[in-house]
């Protein structure tokens, strides 16, 4: 039973708390643990008499517990499905159809899936289920624009630094030539004086 509950509620059941048991007392301990730690949190109450019937394998002893668990699982699944549907409805554009003449025209529209093509001369009807919400698209486009601006500024700075580096290299070259000229001239003047 703990393994079955763990399948539907994996975070609630820690299987190491339940030892494999054949004797009545160990079965009782496992059922008390399951009742106290898990089933009570699901709102399923099991009396001491029910636990004794289940542990002693009385026919139909577990039926009420299984029915209550099934009801909780079905209710939880329906709730999750409804939440998913609501989330999908809130993230999808409503009442929008997109008609384009051909695939090239559709490629210019953001988010249009290209899974199908219309025959030549017919309109292509595009499903909106794979579209990105406009708000999210706008946010991402503005982030891209900001990053492009930052990249452009950095590229300008790099270009400016390259220019400065070239100027400094040229200045070093000019000063080196002047130094060499003065050194050669100084040697000539020294030889003339001696």
TrEMBL record:
InterPro entries: CH_2 (IPR010441), CH_dom_sf (IPR036872), Spermatogenesis_Ciliary_MAP (IPR052111). Pfam families: CH_2. One of its GO terms (molecular function) is microtubule binding. Transmembrane segments: none annotated. One of its GO terms (biological process) is regulation of cytoskeleton organization. GO terms for cellular component: axoneme. It comes from the Eukaryota. PANTHER family: SPERM FLAGELLAR PROTEIN 1 ISOFORM X1 (PTHR12509:SF9), SPERMATOGENESIS-ASSOCIATED 4-RELATED (PTHR12509). This is Sperm flagellar protein 1-like isoform X2. It comes from Frankliniella occidentalis (Western flower thrips). The gene is LOC113202396.
